[in-house]
Amino acid sequence: TYQANVPAFLKNGYSEQEAHSLIQRAVILAKEARDEYQQETGIYNYVAGALGPYGAYLANGSEYTGDYHLSIIEYQQFHRPRLTDILTVGVDVIAIETQPRLDEVLAELDLVKELAPDTLCYVSFSLKDSTRLPDGTPLAVAARTVAKYPNVFAVGVNCIPLEEVTVAIE
After folding, report:
1. Burial class for 60, CB neighbours closer than 10 Å (0-12, 13-18, 19+)
2. How many structural domains does the chain have?
3. Residue 131 within any structural domain of the chain
4. CATH value at residue 24
5. Number of Cβ atoms within 10 Å of the Cβ of 3
6. Which of 69, 51, 54 is nearest to 111 (CA)?
7. Buried (b) or exposed (e) across 106-124, using 16+ Cβ within 10 A?
8. Residue pair 53/123 in contact by the 8 Å Cβ criterion
């Protein structure tokens, strides 16, 4: 569900009902695959409902640069339909992934807190360099800020050059 969102489906000719159905279907298929795997192996895997950044919807590379800005309310209006669909069919965790802007992450976490306060979340940031988010926020500050949410169990980075990973983790 990382890049699946209602506005993108509407823009591409799907009805609102079809858009919601497609997002929910993605989660249902992931849960079915998880359950089949568990039956075959006895190993339980978790299904994460992913919330990619607004920049992924723009499809202009800004999911990595953070070259966009919405108000908290606008971020929440964008993410609410997808999050509601994900929660309706049920996931184990919410994955707030490849996030270039701390303000958007906080809007998403507040939305999760409103809609499903007990749902576990992890956050991963994209980076401008090994120590800063594309919006300029120091990674350490971003990590400490999101760690204050009691349902955030992990903070990480992704979609960065391999040579920056160790420094980012440190």
Report:
1. exposed
2. 1
3. yes
4. 3.20.20.330
5. 14
6. 51
7. bbbbebbeeebeebbbbbb
8. no
Q: Quick check: 48 and 92 in contact, CB under 8 A?
A: yes
pTM over 0.90: yes
The neighbour count for residue 11, using CB atoms within 10 Å, is 11
* Per-residue pLDDT tens over the stretch 146-164: 999 999 999 999 989 899 9
1 assigned to some structural domain: no
Domain that holds residue 20: 6-169
pLDDT digits (tens, 9 = 90+) for 24-67: 999 999 999 999 999 999 999 999 999 999 999 999 999 999 99
> What secondary structure letter does DSSP report for 94?
E
CA pair distance 119, 89, nearest whole angstrom: 13
Task: Say how many CA atoms lie within 13 Å of 25 toward its Cβ.
Answer: 8
Quote the CA–CA distance of 75 and 101 in Å, as a whole number.
11
Q: What is the distance between the alpha carbons of residues 140 and 27, in angstroms, rounded to a whole number?
A: 32
With a CB cutoff of 8 Å and minimum separation 6, the contacts of 163 are none
